Amino acid sequence: HNIGNPINSETVTLETFEAQMKWLNDSGFKSCTFDDFINDLCPEKSFVLTIDDGHKDIINKFKEKYNITKE
Question: In terms of pTM, does the model score above 0.90?
Answer without folding.
Answer: no
